[in-house]
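Quick start: read one record
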Amino acid sequence: MIFFFITISIMSFTCYKLGTVDYGDLLNSSVMLTTPEVLPENEGKLVIIKGRYKLTKAVHDKDYNENFPSPSVSREIEKSVGSTRGGEEWMRESYTVFTGGAKMGNFVLSSGIIENIPRDSSRVFRLGNGKRITYHYTPGSYQSLYFTIIGTQKGHSIVSDKRIKLGSVFQGKYNKRQILDKSLEEGKSYRTLAAAFFACSLIIGAASWLFFAAQIKKIYT
């Protein structure tokens, strides 16, 4: 019970921290580029680029010889643990994210940026040992869509910035104001989640206190 109390308290604190980050000054100091072009004067700066990405290296899962016309793929392996009225139940055994290669303009997208490109297509198949694999991957058609990316220019790459906690890739064309609004919206969701975790931690804490108080009373009576 103490373990659950500590875990939920940490989750509450983490969500609260994510929900209270102020991106206003950070975004105001960033450089909004009209075209995704690497410029020497922006080295080390936070930049915002917009456009269509181009796949330069597709993902290949050599373990199961699966190919994807995609820069970002996640693989979840699950094991069957029985059946209920609701259907078969599964337990996760492993989760892996694969990244290929992609560019936007003459920016090379780092693996951290690529991992944030939405993986909205899926592929599922069963293995012969009571296991199944679920892949989620970025559809090939997404190369025709516009994305807005925020990150740090490093050489000829745009890389994830550790100060950006709520996502670095947005589908569509966003300006600084819209990115800020979206971060505020996501921040509100995290604060709501933090409040829920905090309430759970209080309930568990109170239950733990009552349990131990009862045990101590038994010892001394």
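The radius of gyration is 23 Å.
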